[in-house]
Structures are given as C-alpha cells and as structure tokens.
TrEMBL record:
GO MF annotations in UniProt: ligase activity; ubiquitin-protein transferase activity; zinc ion binding
Keywords (A to Z) from UniProt: Ligase, Metal-binding, Nucleus, Transferase, Ubl conjugation pathway, Zinc, Zinc-finger
Main location: nucleus
Name of the coding gene: G2e3_0
Source organism, top-level taxon: Eukaryota
CDD domains recorded: ePHD_PHF7_G2E3_like (cd15669)
Gene3D superfamilies recorded: Hect, E3 ligase catalytic domains, Zinc/RING finger domain, C3HC4 (zinc finger)
Segments forming a coiled coil: none
Region described as Disordered: spans on this chain: 301-322
Protein name, as recorded: G2E3 ligase
A Pfam family matched in the record: HECT
Cellular localisation: Nucleus
Pathway(s) where this gene product acts: Protein modification; protein ubiquitination
Organism, scientific name: Sylvietta virens
Amino acid sequence: CVLCGRTDDCPEKYGEKRTYVEYNLTVHCYCLLMSSGIWQRGEEDEGVDGFLITDIRKEVKRAAKLKCNICKKKGASIGCVAPKCKRSYHFPCGLQRECIFQFMEDFRSYCWEHRPVQEFTDQEPRGASQCTICLDLVEHLPVYTVLKSPCCKNAWFHRECLQCQALSAGIFFFRCTVCNNKEKFQKEMLRMGIHIPERDASWELEENAYQDLLHCYQHCDVKRSSFFCLLLNTQVFHFSKWEIKRCQYCGSRGTHLACSSMKSWEQNWECMECRSIFAKSGKYRKRKKHALATSEKTNGTTCLLEEPPSKSPRQSSGSPRSFLLQSPKIMCQSLSPCSHLELPASNRVTMTLSPVMSNRNWSLRHKYLRQQRREVCNILKELKAQVKTKTTRLNINAENIWSSALKGFRQRIFSPTNTIEVDFSNCKNRSKTNTSASKHHFFQLLMLHLQNSPLFEGSCGKNLSLNFQAVKENLYFEAGKMIAVSLVHGGPSPGFFSKTLFNCLVYGPENVKPVLEDVADVDVAQTIKMIKYANNLPSLQSTLQDCCEFLTAAGCLRPVTALCDKKMLVNDLLIYHVIKRITLPLESFRQGLKTLGVLEKMQMHPDVFSSILCHKPERLSAETLCDLFTIHSSSDVNKVEGADFWMGFLQEVESGESVVTLEDILLFVTGSCYIPSIGFDPKPTIKFLHIKYPIGNRLLNCLELPITKTYQQFKNIMELTIRSTLRVERE
C-alpha cells in the first residue's frame, strides 16, 4: 500500500486492497478513506471510488514528510483531529495503538489520548456477561475492546464481534442483537469507530441463497407400511393415491394419500409437530382418540400416522455421556446415606449390606476420603502462592451476609490475590476481634448462605437452579468466584455439590448423564417418573398426551410406538431439565470458579476435589484433633503424661462427658470451628508449660497447656477457661 507501506491483504481490518497496474498504484481502501489531506473530488467511477489519481499521489508526497508517532517510520497520512494534537500515524499502526476511526461524515480520526469513550457510571453492574454475538463472556470495563449498547442497559459486546457483525449485516441489517434498535445503535457504533458498509447483507447477496424455498416438499414421512411407499417415496404421481399431501400448517412434512388413509385431495392433513401446537383444541383431542381406537382394533399395530424421529440429533446409548457411568472415579457409592459424610441423593446405594460389610466399606471409604482431602490441601497450598501480602478489607454485616459480601467482592479495589481481612460492622469492639477468626467466620456464614440460596436447588446434593434475575445480575459468576476464593483463602469446603453438577464443571455438560434424583421440582420429577414407570404402551401414550405442553417446552415431543422408546425420552427430558435448561448459569458459574485457577485444578484432579465439593466436611473427632496438633515441650516437662491428659480429655469431649465440644476447643485455639480444606497456617501446635490456665494463641495456632498433678484438675481448668473465653467473645 502506497500510504501505509504494508503488503497485508486483510479486508476486515484494512478494507479492500486494490492494485491499479496502469497507474502503478496499490492502496488499502481504509488507508485512503482516513487520510487527512485528500477528498473525493471526482465521480464514483473516477479514479479510486472518486479519489483522483493525482490527488492520491499528492497525498503520498505529503505523508512522506510526516513521521508516524507509533512505528517512527515516514508516510503517516492520518492525523488526530483533536485541537492542538499533532500526532500522525499509519492506519494499521493506529488500529494497533487503539485509535478511533469514524467511518462517517468527514471520516475523522482520534489518537489514543483523545479518542471518544462511552459513559461508564458507578452504578453500572460490575463483573461479566455474555456477548450476544459470540456467546463468550465479556468484562464490564471501560476499555477499547469492549462496547456497551446505547439502547440496552445490560448488553455488552466485544469490539471485534461487532465489527464482524457490521461487515456481514451491512447498513440495512446491522442493529442491536438484544432489542433490535437500529438508529440509536448504529449512531453510537459509528461514533466508537465501527465501520458499517453501505451495502446489503452478505446473505442477501449470495446467489441462489433461497433457491431451496422454491421447491415443494415431496416426501412421505409416515412410517412406511408397504413396499410401494418405499418405492415411490422419491417420485411424484399427481392425481393418484400416491400423491404427496403436505401439512396444511407448515408445509415441511408430507404423506401419501394412501399411507394416511385419506379419501380425497381436499381432505386436510397436519403433521405431529403442528398438532402439538394445537394440543388444546377439541379437534386435536378427537383425532387422537380416534387414532388410538383404530390402533386397539388392529391388536396394537402401529398407527400409520406415526411421525419419524425428531430432526434434532440425539446421542446414542454409546455416546460419550455413558463413559462417566462406567468410570470407577464416579461409581464410588458405598457410603451409608445416614452418615455425616453424606453423598448426594443421586449417588446413594439402595441395596442392603450386611453390618460387617457396611462397616468395612465405611471404614475404607472414610480412609479414602481422608487421603483425598490431604491431597486437596497440598493443591490449594500451591494456589495460595498467588496470594500477596497486600490486604483488602471487607466490611461485613453478619445479619446481611450476602449483600455485604457481594458489595465487597465487587468493589474496584478487591483482588482475589490480596490477603483478605474481615471486619464485622455489627461487632461492638473491633480492636479485640481476631482477624483470622473473623475471616473463618465470614467464609463459614457465606458458604452456608450459598448452600441455601435460590442459586441452587435440591435437598442434599444440589444442582444449579434457573433464576433469571440472578442471571441478569451475574450472581452465578459471583457465587463461583466466592467459592474459589474461600477454598484458597482458608474457608470451609462447600460440600453440597451434586455429582451431576461436579461432573458438568469438570468433564463438560455434554459428557454427563443426569438421574431422576437430580430433578428438584416435585411436579417435573413426578411427570418423568410416570413416563419412566409406565408398564404398557396405552398408559405411556396417555401420559404423554396429558403432559404434551411439558414435552413441547423441553423439545421432546415425539411419537412413541413402543414401550422401549420411553428410556430415550426420559433420558432426553433429564438432560433438558437438569443441564440444557441451565446452560447460561452453568457457564457463568464455571467462569467464576476459574478465579485463582481453581477450576483448572478441579479438572486436573477431579477425584480429590470431589471429596470436598460433593461430600460434607468430616466431623471432628478426638483422633482428628490429636493428629492435627503437634506436641512440643521443654526438657523439664513430662511430655508423655501431658499428652495422656490431653488425649483423655479429647476422648471424654467426643463421648459427651464434658461441657465443651471439640469445635469449642478448635475455636479456642485457631479462631475457626472447622478445619479448612487448605489446612491451618501455621500448623497447630501444643506446648506444655508451667502456667495456671491454658492459652490459645490464634496468631500462631498454638495451644499452651498447664502442667497439673491429676487429670481431673486438667479437665476442670480446660473447661473453665474455654467456656469463659468463648462466652465473652459471643457477648
């Protein structure tokens, strides 16, 4: 190009590259349009789109004296129109430096410092939403690569997506993809540098693009009951019983007159899809009854009006979804449903085991989960290496935990890589509150709120719900982000994910097969159950007729001619209700979990993360606390006797023979009543010292214990101190 000096041929970026051999001239269309010292002085058919060749050569000479402020080379033909700004640049350099080129009126250009920007108020929602063109997430930020719609409050786009859409749609069809506004939308996009070509849409210019619409449908879609139907299906026989009669409503389905027992051409015929739309009409019900009666008279033979399977592709029983059910990683289902390490309802074992086998399986499973949680601890510690010493303080109201947490996470200064400190605004004496204890308490309240929030549904093992208001406010993204931050910053494990939700996050929703227990809606579950357990074809067809609207909404309305068809139907209904229906919430939730690299680690280590996301945290036991603390003592202290007193005290507390609990002991020492998935930092220790009362040093996670002559003295002092300390804190 004589103006920018580049050989690139990229019409989307630089416009059409044209070469005029007779003038020894090559130029990019956009380089020519945006050049500051040239105007269209000729007619459209003169020179290059009205730019005279002599004028182009003069512009090249003028630009040869100007140095580009970006690449520092000569030939910068474009200048910023802002007053007193003397910056010049090539068109490709300007694109690279994020300059704005307005393809309207005088074809003005603005440098990176003076370019127009969109208004971005403090009330604008933070976070991210879907770009309605590419369907990927777009951050709500006032940056060059992101544009917001002037006519829709919550519509955000990638600049590249809008430019591609504009080039394809042209000036007649380029409009807001959400509200369809054209005038206001185009005006704003032109101001922000989107080029909208003055031509028809690309799909309108395609030759014979709508040729298929001129062909009449000539195919019989009724189940073929004779050799002649099969033989004559691709041939046209007018004025005979083998003539094709098309659906009177859609015209995209057909039947031979003979195959549907139609006596004359004047008789109307409707396909099954169109009948479903008029399901409530009396005419449709009457037809159905007649069809069933005919079927009964022929000893259960298939009705001739049966339609072929749906056009939409369905995965077969050998699809990738089925491999998950056979994977040993997902079939660990030996837990008792009454245990505190409770599995999601969808994964409970229904067969009865002998007490010996049950106890042995429980012990093995318990040991397995412990091992997995130790591995999670190490993985989360790797992720915590990203956390810096710089702090972010969150002001939290315990009575309104969700709103205050959301406000804190959405503030501009919040960063997941900063150390989090928590202040409870309803705490009377902030100076005496322990930072670590406040943070542990905050994450515990937050996870409890999320578990019972409208974002999730289900009793024990929860799936994502479909909450349109939450989608609009981007709350699923925030929930995923909060869970990821909680895991890395020492919060409790959620423990309420269903196996189906976890598998969707790790393996992708297309590889997951949900079960009936995943359906939280009682009415929907009952409908699917009726279909699943129908024991004969008439009862199945009657059930399908009663729930016609539900099947239509799910995209699963289809003819059923055999009892075995219900298996695929139930499977498709479950996939729709549990997975497809929540595609947007699931994707938003996945994006939130990517915070600090948590989702990536989940996908790399699905087994170990399942132990903390799908199973409730292990209840504290004397053995757990004994293993948690490392005992240190000076040389003049009887370490063995002190350890015996400590272990004996833990066992009495576990058995309920004490006024304190194991959670009270852990809270007294660490400020947390649970063991975080990432573990404690520093590791909890015990020291036996010549002191009167026990001391819980929460900064060091150190428990200093007194030396006593008898066990009873040790127990009394421990109970008195722990109860008094915690009571004062609660007050």
